[in-house]
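Researcher: We plan to redesign the surface later, but first we want a full-length starting point. Tokens attached.
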């Protein structure tokens, strides 16, 4: 499809911190700008870690200047809440500012307006923004993400105002159709834009980020993701490392990322004496050299949509071990370009024990073989443009 000069799209996102959804959103916005689209990113809350990486051609609007209210919400007892009262007042002021900053969007027109995260309230896009098409992105398996049904109920309430739902995997699409009857007949799968060439270039852009091995047989395991136990099962990871250490296996498990459970994770690492085996490397805007130099990438999350870490690792040619989550069977063929195991602690322990002892087995799946539909960015972008212009993708 030729460049869509003069076309405009608005994306709405809560706050642009580091994460898989944010990284895929960055690639999507850049790719559309490359095709001539005028792109606006409206953030409910400004100040996210990843804002600086947004393509300079993208107009950024922050409804609320910064994140406030969290300290007051976490306060316990009268004294703590009194001390945190300025945080609550700042939060209220931010909401008022956000209301005023919404008003100009009543007078602007877009070809498409997109809610980029399934858990974000559709109110702004469906009630405030004027757009020819309104689109909701679904980035996870709703059965795993929202077992209490609140996310699905919110999507159903606004379904009549949404023209199309985009799911990032076949499994997430199926979960959407089961949970949200209003999405039936207007939903499809479009995989995340990858920019595989850009990923490989980033992998070559820096040296090996890991410290020297303590022994020649030491296996480097890498996990990349937000330090959130609810989503990424990082506390379970510590227990797995403890068992592997007790078995006398030579490994170091490196974690790239940050998040709300970092402090609790550090405490658990210290409590079970695996600080020499589980290494927190902090946040990184470029994990690709780590993918290249790790022996094995392990994805042990509780749930995913279509796992961005698996996309990045396989494009980088890494060997990967993944637990069964939404979309994984669309990404990996067990034993060919990775391994897929049951999503429980025992399965992870046994699989890693075997792979640490069998470096030749790991080497056999150290390749960049990957399903063509996930790699074909041009097809995805053609589908997205057609959708934004009111055609069936």
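Model: Full-length starting sequence:
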């Amino acid at each position: 499809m030729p460049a869509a000069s003069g076309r405009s799209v608005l994306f709405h996102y809560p706050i642009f911190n580091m994460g898989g959804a944010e990284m895929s959103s960055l690639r999507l916005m850049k790719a559309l700008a490359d095709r001539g689209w005028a792109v606006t990113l409206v953030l409910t809350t400004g100040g996210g870690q990843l804002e600086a990486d947004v393509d300079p051609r993208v107009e950024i609007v922050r409804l609320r200047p910064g994140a406030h209210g969290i300290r007051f919400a976490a306060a316990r007892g009268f004294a703590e809440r009194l001390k945190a009262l300025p945080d609550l007042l700042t939060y209220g002021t931010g909401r008022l500012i956000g209301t005023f900053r919404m008003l100009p969007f009543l007078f602007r027109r877009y070809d498409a307006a997109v809610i980029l995260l399934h858990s974000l309230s559709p109110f702004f896009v469906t009630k405030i923004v004027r757009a020819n098409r309104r689109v909701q992105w679904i980035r996870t398996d709703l059965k795993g993400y929202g077992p209490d049904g609140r996310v699905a109920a919110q999507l159903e309430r606004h379904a009549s105002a949404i023209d199309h739902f985009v799911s990032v995997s076949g499994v997430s699409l199926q979960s959407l159709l089961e949970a949200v009857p209003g999405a039936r007949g207007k939903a499809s799968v479009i995989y995340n834009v990858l920019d595989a060439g850009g990923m490989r270039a980033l992998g070559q852009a820096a040296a090996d980020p890991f410290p020297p091995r303590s022994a020649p047989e030491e296996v480097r395991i890498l996990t990349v993701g937000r330090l959130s136990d609810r989503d990424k099962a990082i506390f379970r990871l510590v227990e797995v490392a403890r068992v592997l250490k007790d078995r006398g296996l030579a490994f170091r498990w490196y974690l790239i990322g940050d998040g709300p459970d970092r402090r609790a994770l550090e405490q658990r690492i210290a409590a079970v004496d695996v600080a020499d085996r589980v290494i927190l490397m902090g946040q990184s805007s470029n994990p690709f050299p780590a993918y290249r130099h790790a022996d094995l990438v392990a994805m042990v999350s509780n749930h995913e949509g279509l796992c961005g870490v698996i996309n990045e690792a396989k494009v980088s040619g890494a060997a990967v071990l993944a637990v069964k989550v939404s979309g994984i069977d669309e990404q990996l063929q067990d034993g060919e370009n990775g391994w897929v195991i049951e999503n429980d602690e025992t399965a992870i322990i046994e699989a890693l024990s075997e792979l640490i002892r069998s470096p030749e087995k790991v080497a056999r799946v150290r390749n960049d073989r990957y399903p063509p539909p996930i790699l074909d960015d041009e097809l995805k972008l053609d589908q997205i443009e057609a959708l934004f212009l009111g055609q069936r993708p």
